[in-house]
């Protein structure tokens, strides 16, 4: 887990690390400005979702390391996973920002964000866009086949989406909502364990448990750094000067 701990250290030291890794992976191609614009657009529309997606990216990298994936794939996960909710750009405000639980019709509308996200990102002709589109389209699939939008089962769900799914759930349960308090660490861990083989790939759950101490400690710190970055995004300070 040495690589994972170094990744967290980088993230906590500098919130611009996300943009630097994006630049390094994209090189001189048009991918960098395109992905950056998508990320910033999504973040500025909804602060909570923006910070959530950034945290999910770092956690996906940690779990990638715990699964033994190579460094390039882990960094690609960190860059692509934050795009998992990009389809929420197409969800009406009345649904996205409803201050309470959604009704059945609103749930159907909200669930379309997976398909919308895959369609938005599929327009990019690049491996990073391909991974991001895959994650966006499949991060709400369940290992037991009961997810959406396609009802994929088991290893038919791409690994990058299986990793992002558990990070998405962990982060969502760990943060308060207007209609429920945040779950504590023991409750979150119990929920994830309870979905082993249900919502989540058992191997990914095992990796999650192996890096649980790092995830639990890093989560609050990542939220603080995400807040800092998004304050700068709102002011415009992060839009041009940083790499």
TrEMBL record:
Family annotation (InterPro entries): Cyclic_di-GMP/3'3'-cGAMP_PDE, HD/PDEase_dom, HD_domain, HD_GYP_dom
Gene3D superfamilies referenced in this protein's UniProt entry, alphabetically: Hypothetical protein af1432
Domain HD-GYP stretches: 27-224
Coiled coil: none
Listed SUPFAM superfamilies: HD-domain/PDEase-like (SSF109604)
GO molecular function: phosphoric diester hydrolase activity
Domain HD: 49-173
Superkingdom of origin: Bacteria
Name recorded for this polypeptide: HD domain-containing protein
Source organism (scientific name): Plasticicumulans acidivorans
